[in-house]
Design goal:
This protein is α/β, with parallel strands linked by helices and 280 residues long. It has 10 helices and 11 strands. Strand 2, helix 2 (43-59) and strand 3 (62-68) form a beta-alpha-beta unit. The protein starts with a strand and ends with a helix. It binds NADPH dihydro-nicotinamide-adenine-dinucleotide phosphate (NDP). Residues 140, 163-166, 168-170, 187-191, 194, 207-210, 228-231, 260-261, 264 line the site of NADPH dihydro-nicotinamide-adenine-dinucleotide phosphate.
Length: 280
């Protein structure tokens, strides 16, 4: 069994981006800019946003950190997004979810210029992903493909089974795998005979949000297992896969933490750089 090292791959991507950013800066005198928008004081969201801004600086991007109080109105937030849309120094806009209940998240996401939608959640980018010509694709799913590529895992012709059909992980990763010529099956809570389906997987992506959901009986020998789940059990982070028994059968497997998690932020930065390069 090979342990897929997401920390290492993420660090390599970030160092490539750092080098490319420095080169572009010396050539153009400009630098990529990422705006993060946080509304309220949710501690987990605050940690995510702080980390994104930290990495932003490390890579050499300009960061536009917008931390707004919980009582910010929808109109005020829409006004801020308008400003960021119009600001040429801002290449990417990331609105940290969840937003407070009095703000309609969909309305906010729709207001982001699709060309600055580095999360890849705007319906225009979702549509482009479905058609197969998106510049900006969601970060976690794109990070999963980057991991498969880094480990030279063949995707074309393989049976990829995706557990979960959310708009942020399940559906987009299924599209990306399809684009890479996998035969894709998407499973969800109403899937019948789940174990029979998952046992056919050459590549199994678990994005369910339930600790230890994927048992060793659900995987065949040699399967590539990608665990997207982030669950907290007794204060400890754990994935959707029952790691120890499954790792005894898997060909390659991602740990939690240290697998898919670190990839998301690297791909967010990669998306920001892509937008910047498109403006040169
Ligand atoms: P959602 O809750 O939006 O989706 C979960 C999916 O799992 C749904 O499609 C649901 O089916 C399916 N599901 C639930 N129970 C079962 C079951 N018994 N059998 C089969 N399918 C089931 O979660 P997300 O996609 O947002 O996230 C999934 C996990 O990934 C979470 O742990 C989350 O924290 C983590 N995550 C990690 C990221 C990272 O950077 N590593 C980024 C994003 C998420 P149905 O649609 O029928 O309800």
């Amino acid at each position: 069994m090979v342990l897929i090292d997401g920390k290492k791959v993420s660090a390599e991507i970030r160092s490539r981006l750092t080098k490319e950013t420095a080169e572009l800066k010396s050539k153009t005198g400009r630098m990529p800019g990422l705006a993060t928008v946080l509304v309220g004081e949710d501690p987990a969201s605050a940690v995510y946003v702080r980390n994104k801004n930290k990495i932003c600086h490390e890579i050499g991007f300009q960061s536009f950190e917008q931390n707004l109080p919980a009582e910010t109105t929808e109109a005020q937030l829409l006004g801020l997004i308008d400003e960021l849309n119009a600001n040429d120094a801002v290449n990417g806009i990331l609105v940290q979810l969840p937003l407070p209940d009095h703000i309609d998240s969909e309305k906010i996401l729709l207001s982001i210029d699709p060309e600055k939608d580095v999360d890849g959640f705007h319906p225009i980018n979702v549509g482009k992903l479905a058609i197969g010509n998106a510049l900006l694709t969601p970060c976690t799913p794109t990070g999963i493909i980057a991991l498969l590529d880094y480990y030279d895992i063949e995707i074309a012709g393989k049976h990829a089974v995706v557990l979960g059909r959310s708009n942020i992980v399940g559906k987009p990763v299924a599209h990306l795998l399809l684009q890479r010529h996998a035969t894709v099956t998407i499973c969800h809570s109403k899937t019948a005979n789940l174990e029979q389906v998952t046992r056919q997987a050459d590549i199994l992506i678990a994005a369910v949000g339930r600790p230890h959901f994927v048992t060793s009986a659900m995987v065949k020998e040699g399967t590539v297992v990608i665990d997207v789940g982030i669950n907290r059990v007794d204060g400890k982070l754990t994935g959707d896969v029952d790691f120890t028994p499954v790792s005894e059968k898997a060909g390659l497997i991602t740990p939690v933490p240290g697998g898919v998690g670190p990839m998301t932020i690297a791909l967010l930065m990669e998306n920001t750089l892509k937008v910047f390069k498109a403006t040169l």
